[in-house]
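Saturday, quiet lab. Running sequence design on the structure tokens for the scaffold JK sent over.
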């Protein structure tokens, strides 16, 4: 079940039938990406229900203590402090990279195990830490696959509509390095200084054959797409969204056909196995729509934590020590953690990666363009 916000002093359990608590960090209000947060929470909650239906953690119920981060790093850091005081065994969740980075720093400082569900920034930890593990692929891994897709489609010179952010800046650097090695280049269009229409003027003069949306959703991503689609000069320009904005139903609802044929990254296999298929059906019923890859990430997060808790108990140090021994069947393959060069936390290397888009003939259907 999901525990509502509680006051100081609650959550200190040590009895044989008392709940085992996991703290969950989720963006559930603006300016957070609420659609992603809703799917992440759905996956977390479904897995908690299934764990409890199967007897819990050695007979103790698993309890999810949810905090809304609202895409605010300071709010997330404060939530980590609160959850640690409430006696959670571990932390789970978060979608936004800058928020997860703040949470990871506090978790490391407090000695609190944190399994990050969905934040891809390579530098999620500022120093090597035994306390933090991650399910989603590092940004450099996924975005290089995306850059290979662009190169394979003949796009060597691309423009990026971007906003100030460590995450977007990291994405620009990855694209610039990967495309530059093949004789390509990246032109940055700073949306803080440009209206969508002015951005179109800059794009038309740039010579770029693709425009990537390295901006927030729905603002300014949706107005930018509308402006580009309406500009006759840009008819042949590919619009791309490596961060995954078109994955969620809200994208199709806001843009209709204009939101199709915009390739993005998602972290699903081409075909789900029997576990993935069962979970997909349950998530679809729970959400009232097709689940995104973020919902599967939430489910897999609790699945891993439950296995670790069953095997090693609720001692925080023992949980963190267990990361390198994890071997859990998730919805998207067997999950194992290792140390990846340049990444200072325990990493699943790697979940499946796809480049997909919405089919112009049916924007509710996804087309797989590349796998990695």
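Result came back. Writing it out in full:
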């Amino acid at each position: 079940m999901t525990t509502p916000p509680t006051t100081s002093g609650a959550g200190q359990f040590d009895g044989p039938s008392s709940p085992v608590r996991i703290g969950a960090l989720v963006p559930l209000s603006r300016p957070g990406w609420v659609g992603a947060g809703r799917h992440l929470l759905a996956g977390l909650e479904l897995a908690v229900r299934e764990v409890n239906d199967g007897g819990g953690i050695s007979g103790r119920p698993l309890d999810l203590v949810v905090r809304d981060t609202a895409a605010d790093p300071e709010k997330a850091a404060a939530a980590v402090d609160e959850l640690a005081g409430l006696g959670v065994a571990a932390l789970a969740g978060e979608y936004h990279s800058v928020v997860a980075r703040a949470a990871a720093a506090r978790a490391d400082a407090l000695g609190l195990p944190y399994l990050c569900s969905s934040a891809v920034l390579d530098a999620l930890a500022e120093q090597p830490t035994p306390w933090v593990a991650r399910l989603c692929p590092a940004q450099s891994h996924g975005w290089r696959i995306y850059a290979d897709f662009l190169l394979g489609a003949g796009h060597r010179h691309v423009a990026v509509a971007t906003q100030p952010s460590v995450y977007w800046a990291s994405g620009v650097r990855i694209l610039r390095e990967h495309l530059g090695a093949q004789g390509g280049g990246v032109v940055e269009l700073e949306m803080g200084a440009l209206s969508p229409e002015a951005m179109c003027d800059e794009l038309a003069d740039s010579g770029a054959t693709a425009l990537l949306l390295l901006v927030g959703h729905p603002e300014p991503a949706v107005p930018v797409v509308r402006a580009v689609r309406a500009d006759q000069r840009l008819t042949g320009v590919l619009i791309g969204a490596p961060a995954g904005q078109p994955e969620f139903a809200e994208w199709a609802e806001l843009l209709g056909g204009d939101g199709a044929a915009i390739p993005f990254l998602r972290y699903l296999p081409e075909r789900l196995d029997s576990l993935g298929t069962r979970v997909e059906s349950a998530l679809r019923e729970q959400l009232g729509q097709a689940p995104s890859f973020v919902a599967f990430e939430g489910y897999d997060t609790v699945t891993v934590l439950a296995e670790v808790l069953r095997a090693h108990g609720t001692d925080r140090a023992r949980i963190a020590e267990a990361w390198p021994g994890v071997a859990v069947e998730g919805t998207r393959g067997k999950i194992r953690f290792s140390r990846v060069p340049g990444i200072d936390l325990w990493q699943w290397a790697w979940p499946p990666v796809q480049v997909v888009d919405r089919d112009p003939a049916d924007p509710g259907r996804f087309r797989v363009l590349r796998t990695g």
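Notes for JK: Residues 223 and 280 are 32 Å apart (CA to CA). The chain is about 40% helix and 20% strand. Ask whether to fix the surface positions before the next round.
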